[in-house]
Input
Amino acid sequence: MYALGVSCYYHDAAAALLHDGVLVAAAEEERFSRLKHDYRFPTNAIRFCLEQVGIAGNDLDYVVFFEKPFRKFDRILMTALQTYPRSWKVFRESMISWMIDKLWVGTTLQSELGISKEKVLFCEHHLSHAASAYLCSPFDEAAILTVDGVGEWVTATCGVGLGNEIRLSKQIEFPHSIGLLYSAFTAFLGFEVNEGEYKVMGMAPYGVPRYVEKVWKVVHQNRDGSFSLDMDYFCFHESTERTYNRKFVSLFGEPRPAKLQFFTKETGFPKNFGDPPGNYDELCKLNQHYADVAASIQRVTEELLLNMANHLHRETGLKRLCIAGGVGLNSVANTRILKETGFEQVFVQPAAGDGGGALGAALWAYNSLLGKPRSFTMRHAYWGRSNSEAQIGDFLRQNAIPFRYFDDDDELLNHVVEGLAQGKVIGWSQGRFEWGPRALGNRSILADPRNPEMKDIVNSKIKFREPYRPFAPSVLAECAEQYFDLAQAQYHDPARYMLYVVPVRESHRSTLPAITHVDGTARLQTVFGDQSPRYYRLIERFGQATGVPVLLNTSFNLKGEPIVNTPADAFQTFFNSEIDALVLENYCVDKAQVRPHG
Ligand SMILES: [Fe+2]
Output
């Protein structure tokens, strides 16, 4: 039996295909369309899923959409009407986009896939989130926490999964939303909503949470973990352009201009920004204020989630917790939940945001609705498209790109390790691309984490990012505990997907300067020999050569672009940056040969 899950029309459109309840393919649309956070109907991702197993649309038994469009439309309509006429613009824009396609997604699915109406099912948004974590977790019974911006009406739920059933017993409704609260601060700090949340999380360690009390003025939490926003400070419910209002500004000051370069006394002036400006000291002070705001909203978000999780633990008495929804990508909060609540094990799958809703919707239909036993546990993130050796060879030859081909895998790995140890930055593409926003060794840029200059090199020559974005380490799972403060690291699934941030052990902070963030932490990825054997061997070899089985791993893309998919995407990124060598399976391209004069 084939069940296809689909999510789209908000952000991160995606498709995920199950065969007899086992995931066989999953991908976000942006990887194909090359449009970051592409929210449109995922034609390409669906086509990929079908091609991966060689079936046509009408071979599908069920197609499951990740939310209920009419219920969502109800919320948008009701909210716009309640705040009319202030919301006239929201109202007009919503009517246009909903009337054109969003309401009729069922019909679109039928016509695109050539299937009958009976095969199209709809799962509630937060149930899709809950299912996307619990039903592919290794747990037979677990508490469930879902937290995001907003689905139809709901913004957070608590519940329990038992066998193949999910019971969500409590929920919080729009406009009270932790996701939208965090997004309002993301916008205030000059970043793009739904994109810049990671930047807020990365900026927070540069600040002191001195505005926590002020943040608690705009959000209130009850003893049972439920919460509400003071809507006097926000306007996301009545505006398409602004999320916070003048009252918010009177509390936190003027918003951070989007173009203001970020640096503080602690970071110094980044080399890749050029010469320091004349008003350097003044700008350091200003940025410090914004870093303090970032630290404050991050701290309150963690407290909100900790209180919810603690209450859920007390109520259920369960030892295991599944987290989903966009807020589940807040790796710092996930780690505090593990360490500061009664839950002993946490599961988050790599596409915790709305893309993951496609997976959840399909799993819910198969396991919960049809009552079929659970037969799938997610152990890795490699569910996307792969490039065959023939495709790579054809691409390189057709474009007259000089390459070296390694027949022998070991020889290739030794060659790459040698380059890394010499300080080279490598673009690395192998196997199927990752599910979710993180690159986990199949579409990654790799470098030596021991080199104190490497953070600056990768930032200035390749990623063109600001210093608050730390680089992550990939470490052999069984060596993780030696370098990072995470007891029994290999038993914690979120660490497979960079969804925990933990302290780097004091004794190794000077060994690993390029992946140690300003507060001494790192967003580690544990790499397993049985799930990613070739990447595992690469790190192992690097460890044998240098004594440190850790690599710096950042996503294979340029700033603002989706992570690469095809050989052409990878080559373009390689060519337009200062990456020294490109490895596509066993093909190796050297920058010196492609661009001999720099
Ligand atoms: Fe969501």
Notes: The mean pLDDT is 93. The longest strand covers residues 154-162. The pocket of fe (ii) ion is lined by residues 125, 129, 148, 151, 325-326, 354 (CB under 6 Å). The two ends are 54 Å apart (CA to CA).
